[in-house]
Amino acid sequence: MQKWLLGLTIVGLLASGLPVHTEAAGTGAKKMPTPGAKTHKGYLKGTFDQNGKALFYFDSANYVNEGTHIKFAADDTEDVTVYETQSDYLKQLVYERYDAVSGESLFFPLSWKGRQYVEINGRKNTSFTVPFKLERLQPMRDVVAKKKATGQSTSLIVKMRTTDSDHAQLSRNTKAIASETIDAGLKMEKFTYSSVYQALAAKAKLAKSADVTYVELDGQMQGLGVDPFKKYQWSLNNTGQRGGVKGADINFEAMKRRIAGKKQTTTRVAVIDTGINPTYADFAGRVRMDLGYDFVHKRQLAIDDHGHGTHVAAIIAANSNNTYGMSGINAKASIIPIKVIAANNTGSNSNIAKGIIYAVKKKAKVINMSLGGGFSSLAIEDALAYAKKQGVLVVVATGNDGTSRLSYPARSKYALSVGSTNRFDRRSTFSNYGDGLDLVAPGQDIPSYLSDGESAFWSGTSMAAPHVAGVASLLYSLKPTLKATEVESILKKSAQDLGKTGYDKAYGYGRLDADKAVRYIK
Q1: Which among 367, 253, 357, 384 is positioned nearest to 316, based on CA atoms?
Q2: Which of 275, 322, 381, 383 pairs as cysteine with 353 (C-beta 3.0–4.6 A)?
Q3: What is the C-alpha to C-alpha distance for residues 116 and 136, in angstroms, rounded to an integer?
Q4: Closest Cα to residue 335, out of 297, 367, 376?
């Protein structure tokens, strides 16, 4: 009887660098044989060593023309594990999704760049034959669990009146256990207290100080060739698949034809989210990890440990026509990954404010924020005002509560707010609407990458916002001298009117139309 094991790749060592292309000395890895041209099947054959192990390697680039995944089989006496990189194999780091579902089938995604390793374990000094097959699978139907914030923060955000104000003395007087500067230019500080009760007492005291403009609790928000998966990207080309309405898309194909041959420059887009996994072949040359930052762990490499940020970034800028996976909207977008949301899908207002300021200073022209919460933040509002003053366009998802009130910061006057539509060109039932809504874009059942090598369909205004950010960055790529106000105006004027004639609170100025938008570029 055969046993099938389901496994994905390992993300634990992404911080150590990109995949290694040469074998490690002493691994003894053998090259995986080429599968049959017609059957797409092959066999890993050999004899286990004295430790009961055998090791093979393969390069995804050799297989992506024939499949999206490699499926491995083993009998009851064998176990198969696939590692994303040589480093992961040497340290035996196994991704948690692999451990959680052992006992079924092992499908390994071919979206990574570089060399992967297959380890087989069995009885020592015995021969083995493990079949494998190239398969084409559609993106997963992955469910994003909704998680509540983990309690009230014990930190305060304090806005000082002048740069000469003694914030250190205020911190000591209110018995803060730690303090840090969020941004000196904006005169924002963060004071941390050992309990929520001490924080509230300090808040009341600080509010009376002549040196303080405002003080607020540091609350939390949530993260809201022919490419094989492109046929599932209805948001780019809706042909009526799965009963949708033909043409209920962003007019991507017409836009591509219109700009073919035109000069485009690189435009920086900051994705303020959970970070990004940069090791996909579809992200080659697209992600500036050297410019990014992780405000959650206070380090430069903003590695995605959730999946949300990677999903968002690929919608904006995945490489197209390279046979690996999907198509992004702007091939000239350069993504700056800024991690402010932790693995549990929550992030503090102070980190979000820092992320916005950081993105501006790294010369992003567009900021995508697929995150939000119910309560406003004066600190984030200050950061957004700073971005606006510096000429940066900030695109924000409206939220997924299905209510007639936008989440924050989508309802900020400094944000371009984006709600979600489905494949029928109707507002998604989960999409927040109401006062302040600017645009809608496809956001339901959108395929893109996760942080672990797989592609998955996700739904949310989080998926709608990067469609707008991607087209906005495309406009900048065609004409770098555009101002943010001009880009915002073009996106609104070119939108496909839905719902009531003219502006309405259900669809804003309408559904994003990339082709009409680029017609305004002269």
Answers
A1: 367
A2: 383
A3: 19
A4: 367
